[in-house]
Amino acid sequence: MSPPIVHHPAFRAEMPEGHRFPMDKFSRLAALLEREGLAGPDGFHCPEPVDLETLRLVHTEDYVRGLVEQSLPAEIVRRIGMPNSESVATRARAATGGTLLTARLALEHGLACNTAGGSHHASAESGAGFCVFNDVAVAARRLQAEGLVRKVLVVDLDVHQGDGTARIFENDPSVFTFSMHAEKNFPARKAVSDLDIELPDGTGDEAYLATLAEILPALLARETPDLVFFNAGVDPHADDKLGRLSLSDHGLARREAFVLGCCLERSIPVAGVIGGGYDADIDRLAQRHAILHRAAREAVKA
Ligand SMILES: [Zn+2]
Second label for 110, Cα 20 to 30 Å away, from 19, 49, 268, 294? Predict the structure, then answer.
């Protein structure tokens, strides 16, 4: 039995002309997971696009309205790096609804994964770096508002700092933000997470995993969260276009197994989101993102 996987068919549509972001990785990933039987006998769990009220738990009224009504200032559109179009808004709402559903399924089953999510550069008043809405922050706030969780831990292992998430929860002790990233990577001006670990260029499997092993078990024991969001960005991979680290496929698989195992052995529900990953070869990239979902299947067997 595989843990639940959330996927929204909005990602099957092609992006409009002129976009720079390889959105197609989401549909390739879903197709790959289906072929491997990871979608489960009843298929993927399909989320509702997140409602605007829920988005406002994190994002400002102006930003949400501007995005949905396609009236964002040019400066914000430039920061996001994607057009202020209906299709971008639809996908962002689907991805955020997906992370919310993933978190609900994680609370129910112990572990669940999205085929999207991890838009960690988005802050309250603006998207940035290909991130529109901060899905993890929105899901955390919504579940807190419903009284389903109190303490939340964000484990962000994307190669870029989770600066948007750090800013959103800067003065909120109910959400602990942990980001481990490449020191010299985007964003140039880092935010302050509750815990930042900055890695030097070229960090490989052994050093990376040893650092994580030093930190994560102690963090879980100290914070005792009701829910963990795991941003499993694959851009620390050696072949990633934007990463500056040197993890192998096997290193990523060990990382995912370690994070999921640490949570499950403490009976802490964990919601996995895919985060970043950049490769001109979309199939190779989908294979890399699927490491999370394969690790999730193995983790529940263990
Ligand atoms: Zn990234």
Answer: 49
How far apart are the CA of 147 and the centre of ligand 1, in A? 31
Q: Is this model's pTM higher than 0.85 or not?
A: yes
Six token digits for residue 255 = 């990382």
Nearest alpha carbon to residue 169 among 126, 134, 137: 137
- What dihedral angle (degrees, nearest 10) is formed by the CA atoms of 92, 96, 101, 102? 100
Ligand 1 ion: nearby residues, β-carbon < 5 Å:
158, 160, 233, 235, 276
Helices (H), 110-248: 135-145, 163-168, 205-223
pLDDT tens digit string along 200-251?
999 999 999 999 999 999 999 999 999 999 999 999 999 999 999 999 999 9
Question: Ligand 1 centroid vs 42 CA: distance in angstroms?
Answer: 31
225: exposed, middle or buried (Cβ count in 10 Å: 0-12, 13-18, 19+): buried
